[in-house]
Design brief:
- By secondary structure, the protein is α/β, with parallel strands linked by helices.
- It folds into five domains: 8-203, 3-Layer(aba) Sandwich (Rossmann fold); 211-350, 3-Layer(aba) Sandwich (Rossmann fold), CATH 3.40.50; 408-510, Arc Repressor Mutant, subunit A, CATH 1.10.10; 534-606, DNA polymerase, domain 1; 625-726, Arc Repressor Mutant, subunit A.
- The protein is built from 34 helices and 17 strands.
- The chain has a seven-stranded parallel beta sheet with strand order 3-4-2-5-6-1-7, with helices on both faces. A six-stranded parallel beta sheet has the order 8-13-12-9-11-10, sandwiched between helices. A two-stranded antiparallel ribbon has the order 14-17.
- α5 links the parallel β3 and β4.
- The chain is globular.
Length: 727
């Protein structure tokens, strides 16, 4: 073991203000400064960047840092400049720079002022850059996000595989390769491709003890669940990942409509807007960023309290890296994922057209992801096993499977049959093929190999394939079997498995989780046909009438019947929950809601009612873009006739949309338009009609008010009345 390199502790304090190193940082820096190739495997939040930043500041010459994303380079350069008195201490060289800016970067490097130069692999391969760097004293090369080198890595970049030849051409110096997520296969690929098989290797534990892992089925109610979850973490920073740009935009809009401070982020956005949204999140002007996986690399925000995967990621490496952005300060970090096997099937279809080997790799990664999501075993144990690290405890007490453990069942016979079948098939086949043989399913593949003639064919006929898959997964976790990743998941029997075959012992497993994606906890919408609790409904109707009488208002202005029916179904006991009821906005809840939630709470307590947990969230007609545009246009006081023309709809259709918006609990102000088409006295007359009427029925209103007023004028005044008095 090498000694501490002189100046490291002083440099840490002087340049970065830290008193001590984290984990392996000091040993890693010492290895690099002594001139050794160094491989660093360190989880997100472990302090990887510092492992090359401080050595660069303490070394002669310039360190070349290969980084995959322009946005990531800019963030890292900005961070380094914040630690230094001089902006020229760090630069990046990429396609975003002008010719003048490039010349300035080169001048600073030649002068010796620049200690770190960040380059994309594409920039490193340009002949003019290679020729320039040959003339520069280089301290070392740092390959950040090194998993991009491997085809098995979740962000494979072919350009990364050209780094070693270019390094040799520029001039050989020590190489440090760093990654937060790498399976043993990916680790081997990185070292082999970079020609650093003799490197000193530093692996930190992948265990993030402070993170709570949870997987839920992605049901039709997923949007409600997301909003409910975010509101349970009100005021806390969070990231929500979606696979598509469209989902990002729609979900961000839905959150905004539900009074959550959220912004979208994806690669298809205007760069200035995308950057502004990222800054707004970092500076806590918004609480939530809804993003594709383009967001997060190099983002040093320590207090992200939750990471939600709206869609299951394509690989466990991606999942681990993205969840790792929660709780980097060691505090709370809730990682919630919504799993749908249908989503994985869609991803598999997207691979069509790619080279066969790439499809096989992608398929294997998706299978590992599905196995993790469906497993009822400790999530921490599963995740760490995937990265080649064993987790001894059977219960981590900080994941959904450990907090709510499933009862285990004896599976000794199934494991014996599994080991015997794998052995009979000469350890040359993958899980699906082996299970088909065991249950006696004569598929085309099984028949082509004549495996339907084997003695093990149908050895567990009648057993659910799902049970066998559970046994197989947990046998791998317990070391009885191994999956050969380099050969796309071919199964082998380990020495422990062979010993089990000779002397079987009890082998208990918890059956995998079942994900019913069509299940809905409760179905509440704006057209509720009746209350689930007639007694509660009768109490609420009486209370509504009492309040309406006191205020001199028609009862429907307080809350309409569908709202009372929903209250008598879900029993909201706080103003926040009340806002989740159809037709109840924030204003209406504050104005009229206190007595309603008070009487509901008393009823719930008196009758010991177990309330349904899933309440309605406010939506704009299933995320209708038209309604959003209407709300925004009215906020800007756009003439409604112009709005009709721009949207290509009839005026009556526009009024339908506005009525739906108001009935959903959103307050809007159309007075600017009414003032243009109706005299104040006429407005007041129609307004008074609705104020005194026992019903807001339009047919009754037309019968009373027409022909003095047109149907459009009556509808517009009804909208104004309901918005002002009800919301």
């Amino acid at each position: 073991m090498s000694k501490t390199f002189p100046g490291l502790e002083e440099g840490l304090k002087y340049h970065f203000g830290f008193d001590k190193f984290k984990g392996n940082q000091e040993a890693i820096m010492t290895s690099l400064l002594e001139g050794h190739d160094t491989f660093v495997l360190m989880p997100t939040g472990g302090g990887k960047s510092l492992c090359y930043q401080l050595p660069a500041l303490l070394s002669e010459g310039t360190a070349i840092v290969v980084s995959p994303l322009i946005a990531l380079m800019k963030n890292q350069v900005d961070a380094m400049r914040n630690f230094s008195e001089n902006d020229n201490v760090a630069h990046f060289l990429n396609s975003s720079l002008t010719r003048t800016a490039i010349e300035q970067v080169k001048a600073d490097i030649i002068s010796g002022r620049t200690k770190l130069l960040y380059v994309a692999p594409e920039s490193l391969t340009k002949e003019e850059n290679i020729e320039f760097l040959k003339t520069v004293p280089i301290s070392f090369y740092a390959i950040d996000e090194a998993h991009c080198i491997s085809e098995w890595g979740h962000d494979f970049r072919p350009e990364y595989r050209r780094i070693r030849p270019i390094v040799n051409e520029i001039g050989s110096r020590p190489v440090i390769a760093l990654t937060a997520t790498a399976t043993p296969k990916v680790q081997h690929d990185i070292q082999k491709n970079l020609g650093m098989t003799d490197a000193r290797v530093f692996k930190s534990s992948f265990n993030r003890e402070n993170l709570f892992y949870e997987v839920r089925p992605k049901s039709k109610n997923v949007d409600k669940e997301v909003i409910r979850f975010v509101k349970q973490h009100a005021g806390k920073s969070g990231i929500i990942y979606c696979l598509s740009r469209k989902s990002v935009e729609e979900l961000a809009t839905l959150l905004q409509i539900n009074n959550i401070r959220a912004l979208p982020y994806h690669a298809g956005m205007d760069p200035a807007t995308r950057s502004a949204n990222q800054d707004a999140f970092l500076h806590e002007k918004v609480d939530v960023i809804v993003a594709t996986i383009a967001f997060g690399m190099g983002i040093d925000k320590p207090d992200v309290r939750f990471v939600v995967h709206y869609d299951m990621p394509k690989s466990l490496e991606g999942y681990y890296q993205e969840t790792g952005r929660a709780g980097r300060d060691g505090g709370e970090g809730h990682c919630l994922t919504f799993y749908s096997y249908k989503d994985l099937q869609k991803m598999e279809k997207f691979m069509q057209g790619k080279p066969v080997s790439e499809q096989e790799i992608g398929r294997q990664l998706l299978m590992e992801t599905a196995a993790y999501a469906e497993s009822s075993v400790c999530r921490r144990k599963s995740l760490l096993h995937y990265f080649g690290e064993e987790y001894a405890p059977h219960n981590c007490e900080n994941c959904d499977n450990c907090v709510n453990p499933k009862k285990k069942v004896e599976a000794k016979d199934e494991l014996l049959a599994l080991i015997e079948t794998i052995s009979a098939l000469k350890e040359k086949f993958k899980a699906d093929h082996i299970i088909d043989v065991m249950v006696g399913k004569a598929t085309a593949d099984v028949s082509s190999y004549h495996h339907d003639d084997l003695e093990v064919f149908g050895c567990v006929q009648g057993t659910d394939a799902r049970v066998l898959r559970t046994v197989l997964r947990q046998a791998i976790l317990n070391g009885y079997l191994s999956s050969d990743i380099e050969n796309y998941g071919i199964l082998h029997v380990t020495p422990a498995g062979k010993a089990f075959l000779k002397k079987p012992t009890s082998f208990k497993v918890a059956l995998d989780n079942e994900f019913d994606e069509d299940e809905e906890v409760i179905n509440i919408n704006s057209s509720v046909s009746g209350a689930a609790d007639p007694e509660m409904y009768a109490i609420l109707v009486a209370l509504r009438k009492q309040i309406a009488t006191q205020l001199g208002l028609p009862p429907y202005v307080i809350f309409q019947d569908p709202s009372l029916e929903a209250m008598a179904t879900t029993y909201p006991i706080s103003l926040e929950e009340l806002q989740n009821i159809p037709g109840v906005g924030a204003g209406k809840a504050k104005r009229y809601g206190e007595e309603f939630v008070k009487i509901i709470k008393k009823y719930v307590d008196d009758n010991e009612i177990e309330r349904p947990e899933d309440l309605r969230v406010r939506s704009v007609a299933n995320k209708s873009k038209l309604k959003i545009q209407i709300i925004q246009a009215i906020d800007r006081k756009i003439d409604l006739t112009e709005l009709v023309a721009s949207q290509g709809i009839e005026f009556s259709q526009l009024l339908d949309e506005i009525e739906a918006i108001v009935n959903a609990g959103t307050r809007i102000n159309i007075s600017y338009f009414l003032d243009e088409i109706m005299d104040p006295a006429d407005q007041q007359e129609v307004y008074d009609y609705f104020k005194e009427s026992e019903s807001d029925d339009l047919k009754e209103a037309y019968a009373e008010l027409c022909p003095d007023y047109t149907e459009e004028e009556v509808r517009l005044m009804r909208i104004k009345f309901l918005s002002e008095m009800g919301n």
